[in-house]
Amino acid sequence: MGTICVNNRDEVEWEPGLTVAELLRRFRYTFPAIVVTINGEVIPEEEFPTRPIPDRADVRVIHLIAGG
What we know:
Layout: E1 3-6, E2 10-13, H1 20-26, E3 34-38, E4 41-43, E5 58-63
């Protein structure tokens, strides 16, 4: 099995069929507004459940915070 890098700090074991939604569940990311990139490509939220993450991918998960 390979690995993927999340947020430039966490090495995660990769498995075939790993989706963005599954990765978010593993990390317990539940923020209301999240941006995910895979190798620099922004992934639309509607693709999270079906978008596979390739082996050795660089994944960034950014939660957006509203402030005033």
